[in-house]
User: Fold these one by one.
Assistant:
Number 1:
Amino acid sequence: MNTLFLKFAIHLENYNIDFGPKGPLTHRWMPNGQSDAIDLDVGNSDYILKVWFERRGYVRDGMIEFDYKRKEVEPAIIPKQVVLEAGPMTGSFTIKDVSDVELEAVKGNKEGDPNYISLGKRIVSIIQPPVSNLLRILRIQYGQYWLREIISI
């Protein structure tokens, strides 16, 4: 069996809500990328799932403005700013039980190949429940109601 490492991003913006944060909002604190990563339990030691939020934005008029493309956040401003946007969720997933044919389909970028498709569906079925649970916690317990739900396939 082979090991496959994937990195992904999930845009959490809800286009059905007018005020439109790009992700969770924080108060005088901002996650600092992988150093603040959350390990999500997937129930199998062959899988490692981590998610985090990158500091994205720039300083304008003494305040941090969110921007997908810029990473110019000034750490000294963070504790002074009441509302900060965390933006999209970034994650990594390590899967240690990838067969040779699945790995070859991925390496060859064979998108229509049944092995490519079945591996993709397996990965999504592993990642989706714990990510959805985390987002549910953010929505319900922390009042981040605008975060869109990740629905299963």
Number 2:
Amino acid sequence: MTPLQRLRQPRAPLLATLLALLIYRLTLAPDLTWAHHGGDGGDLITAAVTLGVPHPTGYPLYVLLGQLISHFPAGNIPFRFNLFSALCLALAAGLVAATTRARPGIQLAAGLTFALLPLVWSQAVISEVYGLNLLLVAALLWVLRRPMPPPAARPGLAAGLLWGLSLTTHLTSLLLLPLILWSWTRPPRPVLRYFLAGLLLGLTLLCLPPLLAAGSSPVVWGDLSHPAGWWWLVSGQLYRYNVLALPPADWLPRLAQWSRAALLGYAWFILPLLWLGRQTLLAPGRGNPTWPITLTATLYTLYAFGYHTNDAAVFLLPALLLLSILLADGLRPLGPAALLLPIALLMLNFDGQNLSRDQIVRPLAGSVLRAAPANAILMAPGDQTIFTLWYFQHVEGQRPDLILVDSNLFAFDWYRQRLGQQYPELHHLAEDDLPGFRAQNGTQPICDVALTAPQPLICPAGVIPPPS
């Protein structure tokens, strides 16, 4: 390869990154949002800004980077975190293009196709951890598919570090292990040593939550004062009952729902992959990466399909990234016409993913906070409401006189202990007894708040109507 060719090579990945970022910026949510299963945004943002510990698995890398992002001089704080997601996924799209071994036009088509898939696009315009996870996974795949010049110490260290960091952003990155093993069958000892060193270095971030828990943040999940509490957090034990737990009665409805979504939003993505399967899937030999990449994508798909939550589809994101890398081979016969694929995705999905006018959460939460009686206890019914109120109270400083209590988290000893530390005036926190808690703290107003309900705030004096 000549020096001029080396100079031109990064142009397609860079262009894919810039175009994806431009499209994401045009459709970015301007504020806190619940769209696209973004209800965790308030928890993640509040934990990052106050240097706390969000819901399991604690996401220490996201917290550290979020603390930096929160000081970026653009828009309000939720906008900055939304922009962070956009940047991560735009860079991931560039890495998808760089990882494919094809001509620049095909690289650009593959990178932009990944960026504009509806599920990927949906996570690029809200505050969530999946963008950061996909960026690290894309960087890992880029390292794994590069040639390994001797002594290959640097690629080994980089791959180990990226895999370790990806595990701190989402535990589903464990499913990448078969692909890593295939990429480096019987690697030289220096590669293995450096890989393990990089992995341990990346995983050291998991030691951060106990240090953050010792601070003053109002958002700290789990009792991190002992190893068992730390393991409960970083291993995601709170969600273990959701793994492969989809009831058999729901298999066919989910299969029908996902199949319909695939036909409507992903047909342009699937057809070139079918062509690729016809051409190369049965080709033998280690030079063909189709089998291990397809196997890893299948593992992600099975995990997502069996996960018992309404938003289980988000676990398909790494599978889409893996298949987008294979997509370049399926697009080769199209030549320059391959660029019609991302153009079609852009036209089909722009309106559905456009959150630029999403202004629902702030007025709703603001009206409830303004209407709440002074020094009241607000009882929230779950994540979406409590996370939103955490953000507006602890990040923006609205209504610091209110005491926010989540009815679901009240079942955990560590949560009630944390409430006692934050609000020493509260009584009856020794046991999981909400009726007793209400009775023992009845000297101050206790209101029920559910931001998604027709009557979002109900207090003893009567019902306060929702905002118009």
Number 3:
Amino acid sequence: MTTIATTNIHDLLDFIDASPSPWHAVDTSAARLIKAGFKALNEQEAWQLETGSRYFVIRGGSSIIAFVIGQNALPTSGFNMVGAHTDSPGLRLKPHAAYTSDGLIRIGVEVYGGPILATFADRDLSMAGRVNVRTAVGFETRLIKFDKPVLRLPNLAIHMNREVNDKGLKFNKQTELPLLFGESADGIEADAQFLGKIAALLKVETKDIINFELNVFDTQKGVVWGANQEFIADSQLDNLASCHAALSALLEHQQPKHTAICALFDHEEVGSESTSGASGSFLTDVIERISLNLNKEEKLRALAKSFFISADMAHAFHPNHAGSYEPCHHALINKGPVIKTNANQRYATNADSAARFIQLCEQAGVPYQQYTHRTDLGCGSTIGPIVASRLGVASVDVGAPMWAMHSIRESAGVLDHAYMIAVLSAHYNHCSD
């Protein structure tokens, strides 16, 4: 493994471990942008943008768009854009989560997106997210993360589930997914005990907690593994690995000619239909504000010259389940970014956009692969078709190959992450005029 690949991969694992929720992912990203000299913008205030300067703006606490104003005129150069998503499938706490049952405090959860629920069993779980706390002038939002395991989903013993190895581990989402939090204390309601732990960590009074948005995460840190340390395992590789790659590539974009945009959206795993999702107006609004000095025709010309890369992880070939893959389209770990194609437009890729990405790979000296889903299996989708249809820009769907997508513990390749950063850097530095 190269020194660059090793450095990148450990930085990725640190990025993920610091980002157990979409709100933390955005906070981690913002900290890195500020350190690199990016200026924070507020959507409620007027923007004064300067050529060559670097900015970012946050919406909803869980989506962030960073951009660099290029030297070339927008109508003749357009936008070089990369998009990814900050959310991952999993379990979210219900508003009134805690209740007592048989001397134990249980935490009610709701399934977010399409996780592999069986992988949450017997793991050292905790919770992270945001909490709204009363202040003298209203409320403020605080990020919270319990570093130690405080939750668990114990399995049912095989003696009561004799067919588990033949029929698989299944959970009733309502009755069998509540997590164990602790023993209940006599005379104290479960909700008070639960909120008391949150209040103690935030150093506030329990009565000052208004509400929260919390998700469950695995406290086991990411690792490099394999005979030659060629693989990684961590939670949320889908899609924080793509977020990290896009952000890393943008941070390398020091003296831009084209205007570069890195858009990291929330809610992709549940359809993107939100104010901070890719189906909302966030990216359109930012582009509109960057283009304020252009007339309508010039804005349309700029979009026509633009290229959007939707970066979302791809399905790597699993030799134990060869029958689940389309023949001649086996995406292999550590063999380069995967170009994802679907005839029914579940991905935004077409022949032209794929060719443009292939040329970027060749320019960066990066191998590439082609993937399409097995025809008789339902194909997932990404933010690619959403952004492409809303902006009317040429778009391609790509991703690093990975195993166990939507498991609480996913795996990918060390080299593939370095490849992805390299090709996205080439994209940001590419000039088509």
